[in-house]
Amino acid sequence: MAKVFIYPINSLILADLVERFGHKPLTMMSQIRGKVTSLSLDSPPINITPEDPKLGLKYAAIEVPAGVRGRMSLIGPLIEQTEAAIIVENPPTDFGCVGCNRTNELTKYLVRSKGVPVLEVKYPESDEEARDFVNEIVAFLESLPKEKPEDEKVEEKESAEKEDKK
Amino acid sequence: MNLSNVKSPEAKERRKMTETKKEEITKYIVISSDKVLPSDAAMKIYESEFPVTVKETCFGLIVSGAKDDVETLVEKIRQLDKNHIFVKDRGFPPGDERRCRASRGGGPRPGFHFLREEVEMLPAIGAALDELEEKECLMEKSKTKCRLKTSDLEKVIEEELAR
């Protein structure tokens, strides 16, 4: 099971296809959930705190707007985990948490420069394009390894042994 | 100090509360099917008697609860019409004041516009998944080997002898 980064990062279609074909989608929703449901000093917990733009400094320079750095504090950790990526070009709408074009450009640049397998497809506008879109994504997902890499298995075993000892 | 080592009943209770809070997840079930309506899916969930919160919406359902329960339920609902029911995670729990329209003075909630755009594309995606499934079935059928029937063998022999 590979961790697949998707762009747009809150896409229903991509998240569903990745999960349907046995991989784990890396989405903004899981990051947001971690923020808004964990207990914190803020009541109710807020999704972006003043600390986040500081964390975003790892991915963007200080002169970059705080909004970009705040978003990168959520997207950046996902990019670090990425083992493969699907990037959809020209999605018709980028609303909500993915509404910032500068963040999107930086995100795509970081993913492409990471050196993981990347599939770039165009957002479908007709039934035929949708068929090609699905076929390309399915072929890409099937080419990814289903099993976890050996290193990870060894690490997991070691951590389990440590927990048992505790 | 490691809080997991604290053994007072109050601390245990607090730890239990935080643990259950962590495991709670919310999922969108988006239904783009001719056979299944959101109300049918909701009834299926009520019948299953899992302790989850269900909210029926115009595009499908929002299901929230313990991770294992939600994942099992979502898989059951998906099987009602596999290629036309789509699922994605949601960060905020249903009815959360920071997102719910009731407490924000109406209007679509943030994130709804993109979902609506994608929902329009779902029938085409579902049809493409149907086609893909059909192709796979045909491939599997052609791959399966079956024993040669005696009647077919007789025909082959007769054809060979007739030459």
Explain this structure.
The complex is a heterodimer of chains A (166) and B (163). Chain A is built from 7 helices and 4 strands. With 166 residues, chain A is of the alpha/beta class. In chain A, helix 4 runs parallel beside helix 5. Chain A is globular and about 50 Å long. By secondary structure, chain B is α+β, with helices and mostly antiparallel strands. Chain B has one domain. Chain B has a 4-stranded antiparallel sheet, sandwiched between helices. The longest helix of chain B is centred in the C-terminal third of the chain and has 32 residues. The radius of gyration of chain B is 26 Å and the shape is elongated. The relative contact order of chain B is 0.12. At the A-B interface, helix 1, helix 2 and helix 6 of A face helix 1, strand 1, strand 4 and helix 5 of B.
Write a concise synopsis of the structure shown.
The complex is a heterodimer of chains A (166) and B (163). With 166 residues, chain A is α/β, with parallel strands linked by helices.
Strand order in space, largest sheet of chain A: 2-1-3-4
How helix-rich are the residues of chain B, as a percent range?
A: 40-55%
Strand fraction of chain A equals 5-15%
Query: Portion of residues in helices of chain A?
Result: 40-55%
DSSP, total strands of chain B: 4
Number of domains of chain A: 1
Strand order of the largest sheet of chain B: 2-3-1-4
The value of Rg of chain A in angstroms is 18 Å
Helical stretch count of chain A?
Answer: 7
